[in-house]
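Pair request: fold both.
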Amino acid sequence: FLQPWRAAICNYVDAFLGVMLLALLVCAPMAAGIETDRRPLQLLGFTSLVSMMVVGTCALIMGVIKFFRRTPHYDIFLCHHKEHAAAQVRYIKTCITNTSKSNVFIDSDNL
């Protein structure tokens, strides 16, 4: 519920951009009716706008780099004898995937 994205960095970027957007939306109406010095509100609004642009650009660049960088598709490769160890290797795969975020490949899964 509180983490809608699969990658943790996406959740942090989403939360940061949401908070900065709220700060920007709060600053604009407050500055509209003020007849005195608007400089602090302008500075807060400008800072939140620039930080949103910088974080968004950095997240986009990181996503493009991660997309084009070649990484192995699986973290763990399990090989077994089909007649004697099929159940055991499936159990090992279940244990590994339940306790970690590793992507496990069994040699007989994708033939």
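--- second member of the pair ---
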Amino acid sequence: STVGSSCTSGPQLLNGKVSNFEPNPPNSLDTCSDGSRGGYHSDESIDEIKVSSVDGGPLRGGAMAEIEAKVWAWSNGSADTADFYYAASANAPVWEFIGSKGAGGPDLQTL
């Protein structure tokens, strides 16, 4: 396959929780699985994640990348924050905290 300058989950990444219609639950890299409560686009959800190279070239290990997350924020969004992490290895991840970003408003937000 060809390495591009970005990679995306596509829209409707989770499309709900286990109790709704999530196609591949639990969509987790660790033991933290989804709960059975909550409703798609009435509670918080992650709709899409996109990772892009900062320099416009192909994505590659050790290079800078930008993360864009499209999220659905609950109520006015004031209580919703996304935490961002990275790991050098997908096979044996050691998660490094990058930072946090508040939703900044209700409903669909791009962080």
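Observation on the second member. The chain has no helices and six strands.
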